[in-house]
Amino acid sequence: MYFFLDFRSVLVFIGQLLVLFYVIFVTKNWRFFKFAWHNNGFFFPMFPFIGTMYIAVIAGQRKNVIAMADFVQKYIGFPFNLWHGYDYYYFTQDPNEAKTLLHNLGAQNKGTVYNDIAYVFQDSLLTIEYKRWRLRRKEYAKCFKPSSLKMFSLDYYKGSSDFIREIMAQNGRQSLSYDDFTKYAFKNFFLTSLGLDKQPENMHRFGECLMQFQEDVAQKLLDPLTPVSMWYYLSPGGRNTAKNMKEITSISRQIFEDKTKQRADFKAFIEHEDNPALLDLMMSLKGTLLNDKNVLDDLVFFSAAASDTSGHFLMICFTLIGMFQDVQEKIYQEIVDLVGQKPILPDDVPKLEYIEAVVHETLRLFPVIPILSRKLDKDVDLGDKVIPKGSNVGISVYHIQRNPTYWPDPLKFDPTRFLPENASKIQPNTYMAFSSGPRDCLGKAQALCMLKITIASVVRNFKVLSKHKSVEEFKVMSALSLKTTHPLDCRFVPRTAELQHGSQEEI
Ligand code: HEM
Question: What positions does the entry give for heme binding (predicted)?
């Protein structure tokens, strides 16, 4: 009896605490509740610490932001309102709202969900606040000028030839994996944009640590229950991250030391160089715009931004090419008609229009960064509503790009949508795979160039095969960048002997 009374008192006490919590919380955050009420309301109750993130558990995949957004869309529809812990999020799939937000100068800081990443990369270009970001982006943009592409495309072609040699030996016996493509993209980035003239000894280890690091951080992102500092020190994933960061930092230091030796007079080099390599530029900014920690954080961030995105993209794109033989045939015809069996030269790349359309159509269906997020430091007027200062926004590029209102038969893999003659049929702001506005992808032109050369070069040498039949079979997940929840089947069988790699001329 006593136990029962005590238990009841405890329940009453918890109830009172909850009521008190709601009264204080709602009063403090009234402007968000008011805004949300007029915009599809709150249909999910929010709880202390976790907000509404328990939805991820109900949706069945706790670490999968797309599954969560799909679930809420099904029961509530867009726009919807969520609480990531105590942070308010307005989620939209409206292309005009997306454009207004991404271009508004009051919406250029990253959403609070990035704080977990910022804990690890405190001061990288990805996460720093807008005021400091502007100057840094302006400097880094010098390394991504279109004129750099001429130089890099020769290296991308060489990289694709090495890759071809590696997969030739397998003769289509086994599928390649996400890791295989991520390592390939990583190596390309190191030997081009970064400016290393040879592979550093421990580059593979750097790549492995980076991939593991991304896997672990992705696990943390949707979990507001565990504070990031506690996760970092106490959970296996966090401790693993700390260990990997330590190794990545030590390899990065070594890379910088080697580079310093290589260019004792690098400042003079920068002044005369139209397209400075990233590593040279970072070193020249050390002590002024960047400190030691910023340089290391940016090196890790750039390496991740360049490898994970392009690697995941290539795995999915080649699988689609293997599934849709008619698309593959058109790719093959384009490269053979325009370039033949010669090396792919910088001037050939812009001519590969169908291959470029394949890249965009893959990214439309599978945007590797499926959800963009920003935090508003001013009220932002969207025309029919004003989002209050302090809100976070989530922009579901994934849902915009699969919306039948803008994309007829949205799950059909049809690269012709992106051919120049059809460009006028694409409604504005309905394709944002590289984001939009000031904080869009800095590496877009380089990524496109590398991906086009890789696809052209590989399809010219191999028949790509996949046992998958339809886009609907792909179950996607994303915490950092999108991939499938299951391995993909994608094999490469060398084309006829005379077209095999042996016949490719060296540059
Ligand atoms: C398939 C390839 C790629 C895709 C789809 C992609 C997509 C994106 C997207 C959507 C963003 C914006 C994120 C946001 O708004 O929060 C971004 C940012 C960025 N990307 Fe890419 N990316 C790709 C490849 C690359 C490559 C190869 C590089 C470098 C060589 C790169 C460098 C960057 C950088 C530096 C940023 C941050 C820009 C800033 O905040 O100023 N990306 N990328």
Answer: 441
pLDDT digits (tens, 9 = 90+) for 120-171: 777 899 999 999 999 999 999 999 988 888 889 999 999 999 999 999 887 7
Q: Is the CB of 439 under 6 A from ligand 1?
A: yes
Q: Pairing mode, if any, of strands 380-381 and 371-375?
A: unpaired
Kindly give the residue spans of alpha helices, DSSP state H, lying in 222-352: 228-234, 236-262, 266-272, 278-285, 292-323, 325-338
The H or E element that residue 131 is part of is helix 130-140
CA angle (39 as vertex; 34, 45 as ends), nearest 5: 70
* C-beta separation of 458 from 159 below 8 A: no
Confidence of residue 479 (pLDDT cuts 50, 70, 90): low
Residue of 424, 382, 503 whose CA lies nearest to 38: 382
Distance from C-alpha of 224 to C-alpha of 230, rounded to nearest angstrom: 11
Q: Cα of 440 to ligand 1 centre, how many Å? A: 7
Ligand 1 pocket, mutate which of 300, 310, 441 (most atoms under 8 A from CB): 441
Among 51, 71, 43, 54, which Cα is nearest to 477's?
71
Of 352, 361, 375, the residue nearest 431 (C-alpha)? 361
Structure tokens belonging to residue 104: 């508004």
**Eight-class DSSP state of 123:** T
The residue whose two tokens read 């812009």 is 350
Kind plus residue range of the DSSP H or E element containing 73: helix 65-75
Closest ligand 1 atom to 313 CA: 1
Query: How do 491-494 and 462-465 pair as beta strands?
Result: antiparallel
Q: Is 357 in the pocket of ligand 1 (CB under 6 A)?
A: no
What CATH number belongs to 22-503? Answer: 1.10.630.10
| Residues β-bridged to residue 83 | 88
In percent, the amount of the chain with pLDDT more than 90 equals 56
